[in-house]
Design goal:
The chain contains 19 helices and 20 strands. It has about 500 residues and is an alpha/beta fold.
């Protein structure tokens, strides 16, 4: 068989930069490839939250270094990439920062090329520029320097002597950024001083840069080692040497955000978590996405589809959540190709997110109570003159509160319940959130429904000392109290916007 024919049966390997840690700094190409990948081989410095984007059936392989776990050698990683690609898989090799900036991506690319494997390089934002930026330190500045140098403090251990030319560094000046060398900081600063770098050269160390628990220490070449030791400073960290460090006092933007330094747990479904998580991160929080539930089709999909098919025969359709809207219209547009087939039915929606989901389908919301609870819908119907003899379809979750159908039936309405979806416990943990929560703890945990409360507690994870509880509204708060937990924060507006505002006020106070 010719090489061209055999190659068509092979997969492809993508060497992908995962960026410096902040999920917002991941490239669109990286996200796209993760969503399509058959195999993901990732390092410890790649933010594991990215694994939440992968297909359920994808194979995920950890190839980094983690305490107490056996790790793969570089040769073993190279062989793994070749093996998986050769059997027809699309392989994503996910590497922290940029694969070609001290990431050994060049070695992996050489191995793939030698094996005749098709590959692609996807650059990532390197921590060498992103981490200083998040510490308020521009690596170049017209008034301060005309060049920047990157060097690694973690060299090949087989080398008999360092390849770093400390004489050249001293003569070159400018901004110098060191990656992966904080554990050798004393030796490196000593060599820099011996070879002529000035004692008062400003130095910054940034640990866990671009993430919600970023920590920065500033000093001089003469005292930075002592300060780092006193602070118990550990890897992973980036060191910046140069006069640009002095600009931090005016340009430090990231560490001044209102929720900076707060580790907050989000327990919503993975799909729904993104909105809440991204807004919390934008305010500076370190977010652990720990989904406790996931949305699945209803137990009786046929029955639900039949009710959706007859939607035009109802006077009102009531949606209680965005999930119900999505499930309803997914079926509706499989049955009909024209939104007008919904007929004369009016639409009621609980909460602005639910209402917006309806509007996204270009349909009008006729009734939306100011309060985002079922009781408020009943009051609104009472204001409109009642519902006697009206046919009402309620699209809702299985095992949800039955207050709404009971109250509307009691008012004389003819009520049908369309069970649009069910929430089931989320048992998968592809991102390692359970481990991170158990080892690092958290300052605050958020609950957006009673089911997130029940299923989180069923996980029986250790409760961190001092962790506060934030609830989206009174129904969720009641469940928390029934389970013996106190509620420290409750949203006045019972949606994500209201929850975030309540958290901001709680920490602002």
């Amino acid at each position: 068989m010719s090489r061209s024919k055999s190659r068509s049966n092979e997969g492809k390997c993508f060497l992908v930069g995962a960026g410096p840690g902040d999920l917002g700094l991941v490239t669109l190409r990286a996200k796209e490839l993760l969503e399509r990948a058959d195999v993901i081989v990732y390092d410890a410095l790649a933010n594991p939250e990215m694994l939440g984007w992968v297909r359920v059936d994808a194979e995920i392989i950890f190839a980094g270094k983690r305490a107490g776990e056996q790790t793969l050698s570089q040769d073993e990683i190279n062989a793994l990439l070749i093996e998986k690609s050769r059997i027809g898989k699309n392989v994503v090799r996910l590497k922290g920062g940029d694969p070609f900036v001290f990431g050994r991506g060049g070695e992996e690319a050489e191995a793939l090329a030698a094996a005749g494997i098709d590959f692609e390089i996807v650059p990532g934002i390197t921590s060498a520029i992103a981490v200083p930026a998040y510490a308020g330190i521009p690596v170049t500045h017209r008034d301060q320097n005309s060049h920047v140098t990157f060097f690694t403090g973690h060299e090949d251990p087989a080398k008999s002597e360092s390849a770093i030319d400390f004489d050249a560094l001293a003569k070159l000046g400018g901004t110098q950024v060191m990656l992966m060398g904080v554990d050798r900081l004393a030796a490196i600063t000593r060599e820099m001083l011996v070879h002529g770098s000035r004692k008062n050269l400003p130095v910054a160390l940034v640990r866990l840069g671009t993430q919600g628990h970023q920590k920065t220490i500033v000093g001089t070449l003469e005292n930075i080692t002592e300060r780092a030791s006193a602070a118990g400073f550990e890897a992973p960290a980036v060191a910046i040497f140069g006069d640009v460090v002095s600009l931090r006092k005016d340009l430090n933007w990231f560490e001044k955000r209102p929720l900076f330094g707060k580790r907050i747990v989000v327990t919503r479904t993975r799909k729904q978590a993104s909105g809440l998580s991204s807004q919390l991160r934008a305010l500076g929080a370190d977010v652990i996405q720990l989904p406790t539930i996931r949305i699945e089709p209803p137990s009786d999909l046929r029955e639900f589809a039949e009710l959706v098919q007859d939607a035009h025969s109802y006077d009102w359709i009531v949606f209680t959540s965005p999930n119900g809207v999505d499930a309803f219209f997914e079926i509706f547009f499989k049955l009909y190709d024209d939104a007008r087939e919904i007929g004369a039915a009016k639409i009621a929606a609980i909460g602005p997110a639910t209402a917006q989901q309806v509007k996204d389908f270009r349909l009008h919301v006729d009734l939306q109570p100011e309060e985002f609870v079922a009781e408020a819908v009943v009051k609104e119907f009472e204001k409109t003159g009642g519902v006697e003899n009206l046919r009402i379809l309620i699209a809702r979750a299985e095992k949800a509160r039955d207050l709404l159908p009971k109250r509307l039936s009691g008012m004389g309405a003819i009520v049908d319940e369309a069970f649009a979806y069910q929430t089931v416990p989320e048992t998968r943990d592809v991102t390692g959130a359970h481990r991170r929560f158990s080892t690092e703890g958290a300052d605050l945990i958020t609950f957006t429904s009673s089911s997130t409360v029940e299923n989180f507690l069923d996980l029986k994870l250790p409760w961190p000392a001092g962790m506060k509880v934030a609830s989206i509204g009174p129904i969720t708060s009641a469940t928390l109290r029934e389970r013996g937990l106190s509620v420290d924060v409750e949203a006045k507006r019972h949606d994500v916007v209201g929850l975030i505002e309540a958290i901001r006020k709680f920490y602002g106070a």
